[in-house]
Specification:
single chain; mainly beta; nine-stranded antiparallel sheet; two-stranded antiparallel sheet; 3 helices; about 40% strand; globular
């Protein structure tokens, strides 16, 4: 199954705003990296042997949003951040690809939480303390049989049982400085699937970079801020932060 995250659509005004902040001095308003974060999860409560308690991490799609000020410019005093996990997105798009259901724009696929303040606190973090629970129910998807016309390739996909998945995010903290404009984050998560719940602490870095070795994470050409300290998580195959943000070399 191809991994896909539904792209967020930013207004031209917002894109212009984010492109200009890269050259700004300290005083960057609360924001988040617009794209995919590599997030590792630490189980804080729940049975690690349960279906919901064995998550190692995920790729999280984040996007900042601002209300319009006077119907025109973005109102930097009224910002929010959306989070959409790849795990649930893959379930949604498999159902779509097989013609079972189109839940790609279901509001339950992502959570949207308001920033607690317009500007970072003294420790350079923007917080979004509470989010509404994001929940989506996906119907059963029948198995995809192998194509007999291609004997050298197995295209079969097992059946995907009907499932209900929910994410309750809280205590989202995003590092926002002139050097790191929303590209390190942490959060608490209660993940629930079909009645099984587990609590996690998530730590993420932008952008998501796949890896097989630490050397790939240290490559200055991979898009990650070269001043960040990252390592390759073998279980996830992603470059991740080795500790709680902020993490620098």
């Amino acid at each position: 199954m191809t991994a896909r995250i539904l792209p967020f659509v930013a207004s031209p005004m917002l894109l212009a705003l984010l492109s200009t902040t890269g050259c700004s001095q300290p005083g960057v308003p609360c924001t988040a990296g617009h794209g995919y974060f590599a997030a590792k999860y630490e189980l804080t409560q729940g049975d690690p042997a349960s279906p919901c308690g064995g998550l190692l991490g995920d790729v999280l799609g984040l996007a900042p949003y601002y209300s319009a000020k006077d119907g025109k410019a973005p109102n930097l005093e009224d910002g929010s951040v959306a989070i959409r996990p790849e795990y649930v997105n893959n379930l949604i798009f498999h159902a779509l690809d097989q013609g079972v259901a189109d839940l790609s724009t279901d509001p339950g696929a992502q959570a949207l939480g308001d920033f607690d303040a317009a500007d970072p606190t003294e420790d350079d973090f923007c917080t979004a303390s509470t989010f509404p629970v994001a929940e989506v129910s996906i119907p059963e998807v029948p198995e995809v049989p192998d194509d007999p016309e291609t004997p050298d390739e197995d295209e079969s996909i097992p059946a995907q049982p009907a499932t209900t998945v929910s994410y309750a995010w809280s205590n989202v903290r995003i590092l926002v400085t002139a050097d790191a404009q929303g590209t390190q984050m942490s959060a608490d998560l209660r993940f629930t699937q079909d009645g099984c719940s587990a609590d996690y602490h998530a730590i993420g870095v932008f952008p998501a970079v796949y890896c097989e070795s630490d050397e790939e994470c240290e490559d200055d050409a991979n898009g990650i801020n070269p001043s960040f300290k990252t390592v390759c998580d073998a279980g996830l195959g992603l470059c991740v932060l080795p500790g709680e943000p902020p993490v620098y070399e």
